Amino acid sequence: MAEKLRLDIVTPYGAVFSDEVDEVTATGSEGEFGVLPEHAPFVTTLRAGLFQARKDGQPLYFFVGWGYAEVGPEKTAVLADSAERAEDIDVERAMEAKRRAEDRLKEQEDVDFTRAEAALERALTRIHIVERVVGR
Ligand code: ATP
After folding, report:
1. Which residues does a 6 A CB cutoff place in the pocket of ligand 1?
2. Do residues 50 and 133 make contact, with C-beta atoms less than 8 angstroms apart?
3. What is the Cα–Cα distance from 76 to 42, expressed in whole angstroms?
4. Global pTM?
5. CA-CA distance, 119 to 24, in Å (whole number)?
6. How confident is the model at residue 35 (pLDDT cuts 50, 70, 90)?
7. Closest CA relative to residue 53, chosen from 94, 88, 4
8. Average predicted confidence (pLDDT) for the chain
9. Distance CA 4, CA 121 (A)
10. Which of 89, 93, 124 to mutate to test the pocket of ligand 1 (most atoms within 8 A of CB)?
11. What is the pLDDT, as a whole number, of residue 136?
12. pLDDT tens-place string over residues 75-113
């Protein structure tokens, strides 16, 4: 039985992670789910959230935006519109994105609310990961 699982996280900006891990915990659109080696295959959508993996007993934290995860017994592949490792999150940039999104949501017209809400969700999630999860 396989003890490791390959994890690939790919975005339009490039590959964010590609390595063997022990387990994965992701934010699916229906809620959090965990994957261990030999998991039955499934495909799910992801929403912006914390994405965790464990490698050699050490936790790895990522922000992963909207996307898909394809899970198989030996491999989990994530294709997301954006993703980065928690240590690469620029919290000031996320604060700026939050302010911009909040200002847009206050406007009455000519605003793409769905887009602004999604941007706000990404910014709040990045800030949460930095401040509450990795505690920077
Ligand atoms: P912004 O308005 O600041 O670009 P955004 O939420 O619109 O934020 P995304 O579309 O999610 O940005 O991501 C675009 C690219 O920028 C991705 O490669 C993503 O990893 C990176 N990125 C976005 N925000 C941050 C951040 N706060 N820290 C580090 N990388 C970021």
Report:
1. 11, 13, 65, 82-84, 88-90, 93-94, 97, 119, 122, 126
2. yes
3. 10
4. 0.96
5. 25
6. very high
7. 4
8. 96
9. 32
10. 93
11. 81
12. 999 999 999 999 999 999 999 999 999 999 999 788 899
Q: How many residues does the chain have?
A: 136
Q: For 12, which DSSP code? A: T
pLDDT at 1: 63
User: What is the number of the ligand 1 atom nearest to the C-alpha of 122?
Assistant: 6
Q: Which residue has the tokens 């935006």?
A: 65
Name which residue sits closest to atom 1 of ligand 1, judged by CA. Answer: 97
Mean pLDDT score, 61-79: 97
Residue 51's nearest CA partner among 74, 21, 96, 91 is 21
